[in-house]
Amino acid sequence: MKTPLLYAFEVCLCCGVLLGLYRWLFECRVPFRACRIYLLAAVAVSALIPALHIPVYPAAPVVFPSVAGQAGPQWEGIAGFFESAATVSAAEPIRTPGWPDMLSDALLVAYAVAVFVFVVLFAMRLAAIARLRRQARLTRFRDFVLAEHAAVRTPFSFLRTVYLGEGFDGSRRSIVLRHETSHVRHRHSVERVAMEAMLCVLWFNPFAWVAARRLREVQEWEADRDVLDAGCDLTDYRTTLFSQLFGCNPDMTCGLSHSFTKKRFLMMTRNKWGRFAGWRLAAALPFVGGLLCLCGFTARETAIADDMPAVVRIAADGSMTFNGREVTESQLFGFVAAEREKLAAADRNSGPAKAVNPQIFIGADGAVSLNGDAVTLAELETNLKTFRTGLSVAELADVYAEVSGASSAPMAVVTDVQEVLRRVPLLKLHYRCGGSSASRILAPAPGGSGKVRVIEPVPDQQNDLVVWINEKGRVMVELSGSSEIVPLAELSGRISDFVEGRIGHAERKVKSLGLPDGRTVDYPVSRGVVWVVHSRYTPYDKYVSVQQAVTAGFGTARDALAREWFGKHAAALTDAERQLVWQALPIAVLDRD
Predict the structure, then answer these.
(1) pLDDT tens digits, 191-220
(2) Going by fewer Cβ within 10 Å, which terminus of the chain is more open, N or C?
(3) Enclosing domain of residue 435
(4) CA distances from 399 to 46, 71, 366, 388 (A)
(5) Distances (CA, A) of 566 to 54, 72, 287
(6) Where are the beta strands (DSSP E) in 289-406?
(7) 224 within 8 A of 254, measured Cβ to Cβ
(8) Where among 271, 295, 319 does a domain terminate?
(9) Residue 54 contacts by C-beta under 8 Å, 6 or more apart in sequence?
């Protein structure tokens, strides 16, 4: 989605290009009616094109090298992890970013105030014209209504009414009425009102104001031409025009008071248009198409379809491409791991066990469905408990709940669904929204009995890295008492730096691990915990994207350790090697609202 500043810039760019095209190809070269239509369309199209979101271009793939671990590391044992996990006070509210948010909000408020002011001024001018018409002496003709009042210093017209003051008689009166009835006949005031309405909204666009001035010029030229074509003497008409030069009337009306008199006099003697007027109009189409490509076309949300075959090419210089896009070696292994995960999921869901994983969907309105059927939270809990009771031990080890939802699904409902899954219990989750996905294990409620007993975590800021997601989807990272707003694209890097000890001061406990080749490695296992904290109004798509980025951060650290110990990427490890890497770098993520 475009930012307001980017949209405003693209509006100005489109309008400037179209207005420059008008001066170059159309002005004084094509019929007046074509010029009027073009100027109105140029302002409207310049606002429309940047607002379009047409997914045409291939999307750049978002690569998370940690995909290699998503099929299994999230399903690791969690007892030891939750025994030492740090906590965040439940009463602490979600934190909002600082001055960037405030500046953005201030600009939007300033824009809204300016629009309100322009609309009020526009309404006041309309009211002034309506009041003048009520006070004037009206004479109805076949094509227009003549309103005469002493307050009218300069003749003008608005809609089907011509406003005339005192002192107009004889040939002068005839010339003025012919000029103003030309405005009425061509409905020039309707075009002025449309232009003024667009200026109220696009007041920030300087080219729109220039277009409005050019529209007034064309309308006056057209009225002048009609008067002269009706047989009016050129000298008499110019004399009348000079006599009205220093009058004034409302900006959005049509009259004889505008000061571009010299240019009008030149246009009065012009009887022919430039050659190839039709071709000039057609020449605008490639420019509009170019602006559409530049400002209206966007990338698709998904770069690679699920059924598209993966094609990897390695050039002589060692560069690699995946489905036509250049990738690094690490990115390539991430894609390969993703394909392996899809294949493994397909194998798990084949045959009798295909219906094992329950599909939970949360709509934008908060409605919950289970396997396509609408359910309440109570019904969801009952159905999942029944489903879990019917599973064998082997099936229960592999089952997980897929929680997908609309991008604007309420996080409050997502939290309620998580609580239901804790009570079932069904703790393995796979979040999905749009092109983002992440696997995670829910923390059971404190207490309980059985193989996993979770105790209340002890607050310890030293071991915490907190990822805050506010209601606008912005991300802030808090570490060791300091916080910083972080772009989503940089979040996985921060997580990997924290996991590997490059930032923060999380405690570490040295653990001896025996490698398959007989070596023994003493590795300092981090006790650091990543908290993902959201508000009840956080967009669900941002929540899932953050979960995916957090998983990617752990995966990057695991990939680096796999290369250090075994000389290969995590995606290429054997099961025994992978288990050792998981023990050295366990997934430590907690989630709360």
Answers:
(1) 999 999 999 999 999 999 999 999 988 888
(2) N
(3) 65-95+328-592
(4) 53, 12, 25, 9
(5) 46, 19, 57
(6) 297-299, 312-314, 320-322, 325-327, 359-362, 368-370, 373-375, 401-405
(7) no
(8) 295
(9) 292, 296, 297, 298
